[in-house]
Amino acid sequence: xxxxxxxRLFETIEKYGYARYDGPILEPAEIYxxxxxxxxxxxxxxxxxDRGGRRxxxxxxxxxxxxxxxxxxxxxxxxxxxxxxxxxxxRYERPQRGRLREHWQxxxxxxxxxxxxxxxxxxxxxxxxxxxxxxxxxxxxxRASDRVILESILIxxxxxxxxxxxxxxxxxxxxxxxxxxxxxxxxxxxxIDDKQFHRLEEVLQSGQDVLGEISPDxxxxxxxxxxxxxxxxxxxxxxxxxxxxxxxxxxxxxEVFDLHPDNTRSLFxxxxxxxxxxxxxxxxxxxxxxxxxxxxxxxxxxxxxxxxQPGAEVDAAVVPIDDSLMPECRELARRLRQEGVRTSVPxxxxxxxxxxxxxxxxxxxxxxxxGVREWERDVVIVRDLVAQEQVEVPVAEFTQRVKAALQPA
Amino acid sequence: xxxxxxxRLFETIEKYGYARYDGPILEPAEIYxxxxxxxxxxxxxxxxxDRGGRRxxxxxxxxxxxxxxxxxxxxxxxxxxxxxxxxxxxRYERPQRGRLREHWQxxxxxxxxxxxxxxxxxxxxxxxxxxxxxxxxxxxxxRASDRVILESILIxxxxxxxxxxxxxxxxxxxxxxxxxxxxxxxxxxxxIDDKQFHRLEEVLQSGQDVLGEISPDxxxxxxxxxxxxxxxxxxxxxxxxxxxxxxxxxxxxxEVFDLHPDNTRSLFxxxxxxxxxxxxxxxxxxxxxxxxxxxxxxxxxxxxxxxxQPGAEVDAAVVPIDDSLMPECRELARRLRQEGVRTSVPxxxxxxxxxxxxxxxxxxxxxxxxGVREWERDVVIVRDLVAQEQVEVPVAEFTQRVKAALQPA
Lengths: 409, 409
Fold this sequence. Notes:
CATH architecture of the largest domain in chain A: 2-Layer Sandwich
Catalytic activity (chains A, B): tRNA(His) + L-histidine + ATP = L-histidyl-tRNA(His) + AMP + diphosphate + H(+)
Oligomer: homodimer
CATH topology of the largest domain in chain A: BirA Bifunctional Protein, domain 2
Keywords (chains A, B): Aminoacyl-tRNA synthetase, ATP-binding, Cytoplasm, Ligase, Nucleotide-binding
Enzyme class (chains A, B): ligase
Strand order of the largest sheet of chain A: 1-5-6-11-10-9-7-8
Protein name (chains A, B): Histidine--tRNA ligase
GO molecular function (chains A, B): ATP binding; histidine-tRNA ligase activity
Low-confidence stretches of chain A: none
Largest interface: A-B, 62 and 62 residues
């Protein structure tokens, strides 16, 4: 299932010119402790000490590995570069809806550019990827904010002190998750008084209109604000509550939400970082990207009835009437495979009827039946397993006949 | 590179009707300690204790996971089943030619059958996979033996005691790797006297002819002997020195060897097991399979000059004369992608000439150039980046024009 779904996504991503990369699943533990945030480093890391005494961790996310590879190849790369990967990541946490300890993730990034063209491309790509899954626009929404806008709201409009920016951002991140009294109390600890809190509430709840209150300077520094003024504005909905926890985001942050009433959670998200690879190089490498996990995606496809049918393993089966004809069957199967037809032959001797049932269950729509007397006359039987009809066909013509029968009517 | 090569192999495997599966990279450490052999369990396992106190290991191989999945689904599966996977595995060892700590491996198995039809199919599939990589028959050879034959050589012909079968097999496994005096000494410890040792030497060195000396009973129990009598005999060369260390093999064992003089090592191999999933179910599940690793494969392709060229990321690029035309470029790129053309647009504003060089480097063979005055006249320029020729084309016709230019001449 994941293979089929992900394959469609890879095709879509590659249509935009993204190159595929990969990296090791074990990395030095420090690279996560430095950048991935306290929750991951302290509680969710699968770490081990190898026989050489090195502290290693199973990657909980791909970004630090990508940063190391980008930094290591910075001399050879022509920025901006478009990269994507498909990797398995581990986080030690209680398995729950949408979160398992091992998950597969597609990461898509543009490295080496500050331009809002990146945002537009990434947003457009997300729309195409969702379409490739069969999702229509009523099923999901892309919401975004910008750390530049958030900063302007908190400092310029509400009056939060600059050094309290991080905890104040975290307050907004928790807005919908904790009771209002708790927010008020937490805000007070950050020096946000009642009046300021009301102002914050008012601003956040004005949604799109907040942008009218932001300083022109902040607006001009915000890639998201630029996107929202242009042709791509309908791809994304501004939402000041989008914060995202990971510390390396510095600009645009975005999340795709499922709109299904039973499953109104974030499906995936990403953001812009002004300097990804600071741990590995002095060259500033900005970028923007997102990671899309298989678990939440699977839930999304399930609730919307978009899960693909289990794949048919074969198109055709070549079956002998008598086991002594297995060499002939293998020869015919070989010819079909050369023509691109996925073809099976029996492994265990079995009655013809049973073998045809088995072939159908494996997805075969056509069977080639090889009989002793038929083979002597240089013919085989080509049977349409769906229509339940069969014809005798000269061996010289059987591949064409099978391929014709496999064509959609 | 690996993606391209492996993709060709997946296509070949799927033509035989194998279904793809996957499994977790972390498994309980015990499942390797029970079956993978002492060397892996004691020295090569990356293990860790999770926060729940469980001892886990990064899988060093896929077979035990496959066994668990097969056993867990045995009630639902219709045996025999054809399965394959592509997984990353870890072994802690000194990195050296052909061996790295993390490697990717394709595993291919038929589960649930004792029939020699399995051997024939697996051998044929290996031939097809090697062809798919561009390898010709002078580059490699498939050698096989059978534990049944080995047992008959050691017990019936040489006279080794049955309880010394395992160490005597290991002796043969080490035959080419240690000096003769060492073999003689080790043999003596196993109760093999000089005369018996000479007989063993004689038998092993007679190659294919050994089969003439094996008891009819052993021959009839050997799937490999059956294969060597039939139509598929040219797919494989009998070699009594093939032993393979992994303890679960009980019948046919085989290895593919590179024939290049600089790299005459085993590329990959596999074998037959009479009961794979004994640790997980009482149902006997026999089978046969092999694992093909990326590292040795990479070496093989390199020494034979078969490594594929780095892939071109895009087919076409849509480039504006002026950055203000980016929305139009994106719209044209969207139309090309809908037609299946991998298309990039610029991210950073750049001079046209530079952008065309960049597009060529990304693999684009065609550029669509959008100019202000041309756009007003509803035309664009379609430039063949290889032939360095360009024409003005009405926007309504540009997708056809680009697709025509991308056709191989």
